[in-house]
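G.,

No rush on this.
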Amino acid sequence: MKIIVQLDIMLALRKMKSKDLANAIGITTANLSILKSGKAKAVRFSTLSAICKELDCQPGDILKYE
C-alpha cells in the first residue's frame, strides 16, 4: 500500500501549469515536480493547504491511498 499523488490530474482539470502553481504557492518548480512525481517523502500541511486553496480542491483530490 502506498500514497499516490494525483496533482497532475488536478492541474489538468484546472487548466493550470505546474510553473504557475509553484509561483502562486511560493515553492520552486523543482520541489513541485518532486511532489507531483510521488518521490517526496513528506509534504507540509502548509504546502498542501496552499495547493488546495489555489486549485479549489480537497486534499483527497490530490492524495490517494492505494
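When you get to it, here's the other one too:
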Amino acid sequence: MNTTALLLFSVVAFVAIATPGPTVLLALTNGSRYGLRRSVPGMLGAVVSDLVLVGAVALGLGALLAASEFWFGVLKWVGAAYLAWLGLRMLRSQGGFEVPGDDGSPHGLVSGRSIFAKSFLVAATNPKGYLFCSALLPQFIDPATAQAPQYISIAIVFAGLDFLVMFGYALTGAKAVRLLKASATRWLDRACGGALLALAGSLAFYRRANT
C-alpha cells in the first residue's frame, strides 16, 4: 500500500467514523456521565473492536456474513438487542448525569471494565461494520504485495482515527454537562437512549441484500 492510498483511506475512514452512530453516542454519554478521563476505557473498547473488525475482514469474516444469511441474522439480532437494552436503560434513567468533579472523577462508581465492554460490544456486534469494511478495505489493498502488513497499517490508522474521534465526542460531552442544567442533562440522556433504540430498529430491519 502506497502513501497516497493510505491517505485516501484515512479520509474515507474519518468520515465514516465521525458520522453519528452507536459508538459515537456512547462516547458522548460517557464523557457527560463520567468525565473525560473515565471515558478512556470506552475509547479503548472502540479501538479494540476496530482491530477485531479489520482482522475479521482480513480473515474473510465479512465475506462469510455476506454469503450466510444465518450468521448474518445471528450477529444482527444480537447487536440490535444489545443496542435496544442500552437505549432502554438510558430512557429509564431517573437521575440524569453525574457531574464529574474537578479531578475528572464521577460521583458514582462505574468500573472501567464496564465502560470498555459496552463500547466494544456495540461495535463488535454490528454486522454493518463487517460488511462495510469487507467492501471498502480490499480497494486499498495491493494484491501484488504482502497483504498482512497492509492490513496492519489500515488497522493502526483506523484505530488511531477512531480514538481521536471518540476523544472529541467524549470531550464535548464532558464540557456540555458542566454548562447544562440538571433537567437538560436528563433530556440529553433520554435523547441518546431514543437514538440508540432507533439505531437498534434500523439494524433489526437491515438486510444483506441492501449491501
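The two ends are 26 Å apart (CA to CA). Residues 22-95+107-210 form one domain.

Enjoy the weekend,
O.
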